[in-house]
Design brief:
de novo design (two linked rop proteins); mainly alpha; 82% helix; 7 helices
Length: 192
C-alpha cells in the first residue's frame, strides 16, 4: 500500500513540475510578446513624429516655391492632397501608403528648383531644404528602427513554441513594413 502511495506522489509531483514548466513558458512568452509589441508601437510613434515634422515643413517650402513658380499648380495640388492623406491616415499601413504618395509629389516639387535658378539661390528655400534634409535623415533612421523592431517581433511570434502561445494570446505577425516607394526605385536621369 505504501508503494502505491509513493507512486501516486511521484506522478503528482511530475505533473505539478511539468505544469509549472508549461505555465512558466507561457508567462515568459506572454511578457516578451507584450514588451516586443510595445517596442513596435514605440518605434512606429517615432516614425509618425518625423512624418508629422516633414508634413509641417512642406507648406512653408511650397509657399516659398510658389513665389517663384506661378504656373506649377498641379504639383502644388498634388502635394496638398498627398499631405492631407498623410495627416488623415490612422493605421501604419495607411500612413505608409500616404507617405509614398507624398514622396512622389514632393520629388516633383524639388525637381522644380532645377528650372528656376533664382529659387535655388533663395535663402529661405535653402534653409527649408536643409531642414527637410535633416528630417528625411531622421525619418530614415526611424523607419529602420521600426522595421528592425517589427522584424524581431515577427520572428519571435513565428518561432515554436512562441507561435502556440502567441496564437492563444491573440498576437499575430504584423507585416506593415516600411519599404521604398515605387518613385524611389526609379533611377533619376542626370543631365549636365
Amino acid at each position: 500500500m505504501k508503494r502505491g502511495l509513493w507512486i501516486l506522489v511521484g506522478i503528482v509531483t511530475v505533473f505539478i513540475f511539468v505544469a509549472l514548466l508549461v505555465y512558466g513558458s507561457f508567462k515568459s512568452t506572454q511578457n516578451q510578446l507584450v514588451a516586443m509589441d510595445e517596442q513596435v508601437h514605440t518605434t512606429w510613434s517615432d516614425v509618425d513624429i518625423q512624418l508629422q515634422r516633414r508634413a509641417d515643413l512642406i507648406p512653408n517650402l511650397v509657399e516659398t516655391v510658389k513665389g517663384f513658380t506661378k504656373e506649377e499648380n498641379s504639383v502644388f495640388s498634388d502635394i496638398a492632397n498627398a499631405r492631407a492623406g498623410l495627416l488623415s491616415a490612422h493605421t501604419p499601413q495607411d500612413k505608409i501608403a500616404a507617405n509614398g504618395r507624398l514622396d512622389s509629389a514632393f520629388g516633383r516639387l524639388l525637381a522644380l528648383s532645377e528650372n528656376y535658378p533664382q529659387l535655388r539661390s533663395n535663402e529661405e528655400f535653402l534653409r527649408l531644404q536643409d531642414e527637410l534634409s535633416g528630417t528625411e535623415n531622421r525619418i530614415s533612421v526611424s523607419r529602420r528602427r521600426y522595421n528592425d523592431s517589427l522584424r524581431a517581433y515577427n520572428t519571435f511570434v513565428r518561432e515554436f513554441p512562441n507561435s502556440v502561445w502567441a496564437g492563444m494570446l491573440g498576437f499575430a505577425p504584423n507585416n506593415a513594413y516600411f519599404e521604398a516607394s515605387q518613385s524611389a526605385r526609379t533611377v533619376p536621369s542626370v543631365k549636365f
